[in-house]
Design goal:
With 847 residues, the protein is an alpha+beta fold. Helix content is 56%, strand content 16%.
Length: 847
Amino acid sequence: MLRLTLAQMRRSLGRLTAAAVAIVLGTAFVAATLIAGDVMTRTTYDAVTATYGDADLVVRQDSPLTQEQLDGMRAADGVVAVDPMVVGWVQLALGGRSTTERLLVVPSEPRLASLQVVEGTVPAGPDEVALPASTLERLDAALGDTIRVDWTVWSDDEPEAQVAQVRVVGLVDDPAQAWARFGGAGLAPEASVLAWSGWSTLEEAYTTEAVVAVAPGAVEPARAALVAPAAPDAQVVTRDEAAAASVESLADGTNVMVSVVLAFASIALLVAALVISNTFQVLVAQRTRTLALLRCVGARRAQLRASVLLEAGLLGLAASGLGVLVGIGLTAGALVVLARVDVGVPLPTTVSVTAVAVLVPLAVGTLVTVLAALVPARAATRVAPVAALRPADAPAVGARSGRVRLVFSLLLSVGGAAGMLAAVALARLGAVDAMAPLGLGILGGAASFVGVVLGAVFWVPKVVAGVGRLVQGSSPSARIAAANTVRNPRRTAATSTALLIGVTLVVMMSTGAASARSSLAQDLDQRYPVDVLLEGLDPVSGGTEAIDPAVLRAVAAVDGVRDLVPVRQASVTAESTDGSTWDGVVFAIDPQDARRVVGNEPVLDALSADVLVLPDDAEISGDVTVSGRDQEWELTGAGTTLGTVRAPTSVGWVGESAMDRLAPDATETLAFVALEAGAKAGEVQQSVQDAIGDATVSVVSPAAERAVYEQVINTMLAVVVGLLGVAVLIALVGVANTLSLSVLERRRESATLRAIGLSRRGLRWMLAVEGMLIAGVGALLGTALGLFYGWAGAATVFGTISDLTLAVPWLDLALVMVVALAAGLVASVLPGRSAARTPPVAALAVD
């Protein structure tokens, strides 16, 4: 049977190509993911190892190191130097610029250094620091400049702001990129790092590691000697052992990422399985006479089944091997590209292929192929010997789907949808932990989608037939194409379902992202309804003070600023007639000025001269008496009566005339800034900070926060759609495969059509319409399902947002449909050319 199987594979090589391509794409995805995961682990290991410098030993313990322990370690035999791995965070500023920086302690021994001072000197005094070039660039500073360090210390449970002027004496480099994943680091003496980070003692820094340099040849004696002065739970290990332990604790994040990507790879392999199954069903159908003849000459059912499965196994093994090579090539190419881009993390220049990265894709690809061929193999055993006596025309594939499948499909679809709706309801009510509705929603969505895919054979052909009736009147070729799509419901359903899976997931993510983007933007507009908020601060008391008009003029002149309105604020108490009260801060702004800079429409609609606009959660209503309060929270007057309106806001709002009565001495401590359309909020925020200079004015940009949210959502969407793109590509390969197999099956039929007058162009158009019907219906159904799942997911995840917006990404949906139709058209080109080139006389010959 092996020689027979190999012979059949050679004869059917063209028909197996599409299935092989599907396996190659899926296994390449798996191999590339595993190799990339190994690259991330190696990169992390190299970076962690570099943080220890060239230390001989590392002392690690669960409790913080004490000065007494360090002194004991330094006195141990064979020890040259011991440095605690203190890592502090400090706030640096120069002019109107500020940044946070990670600071390390200047090493007492060159071997313990993870950073190098490449220009200037090593910091030695309490007012000296060495910084990386990137930090100096952010501060617009240079070597030798004096910068400000701000920190806070606590005295009697009260915070006290501290300031120090320090000089940049050195420029540091991180040749091994040990601290690149943290944005870089600088150097300062130990006492300075502790003080500037707000720690009064080494114990407060909670440092649990120390690096040790020992005399030549004294590693093991020093290792034994260091045990006594350390804590009872301490471990004295080599640098490589410490790095390995750290990487193991950090590996969870990498493993989670690899697992997520492998989940997308499994989707691609599922789609590939549909393509493979389709291919083998057609092959078995076309070999009906051959299989029957084999039965006549004594072949058993088990031998026929084994022959089909062996063919699948050999195909899977060969294609998976090629897929592994493609995956290795893709990863190597990615490393070459990343090497030319500053990604901030050192990456290897070559791919290190592990046994897991080779064996797992080979095994998975082969197993998926064999499993996909099980049903066709079973069909091969049902061929009766008498079939050898029948003509070989028009082989039929598949049998009527059973009632059991229908029942399971309905149960999963309806039950899963009910679970999703219950999850949405629970999320909106907020009565349980947020993870409960999320888990229920994921489980319900997965169950319903499996039910939809399981039952696709029942309803997808009907949808294809319905759409076909809409287009069949356009031409005779379209009428024949519409009829051809439903001649084999199983194959049409499998092909459309393969595309449906990918499109559903793409549209679901796109819809969820659009809803999340819209809902978060609306929520931010309600809580922070301005693009940029300025607030004057009193550097002495820590309270607020009026913003200098010169500062406001400077900000108004910044590129990207469209408008600026100064605003007064005051603390008030509002009391209703029933005695209930509301205490809070109110902003005073003229209603007309508000429309220039405020984005909260409910507030804008409610704001008027005699109304206090309150947050939604305020427990008072009706007419209220509002009184201003001073900084000691004492009432400043008898109060004034105002009406109330609730709106989605976090503060109160009044008109200018009301503020004149509430707090006539209130000054313009705030300014609302509106940005021009298309302005980059982050860049404008930095320009505003520069324009303010040394003035004590706080700058907060909700617009920049919105931009960050949108960037995160768009980045995640791009990554997910890119990962799902492999599944969609395999599905489109399946469309081309279906058309190619149809051409092979219908050679005599196509010849008959040509003989009775159908032109080559008409034949090609018939296949084009068939391809677009199959792909278009798959995309259309996937779009509808994706919208439903996307809305349900967004409503579950963002259920606590009161005004949830369920957005429709029209542009994305249009793009999906255009790509699907174009892909169906392109998939028909080669099959159409093949059919048109075959002479009618040759095609009418019996195989």
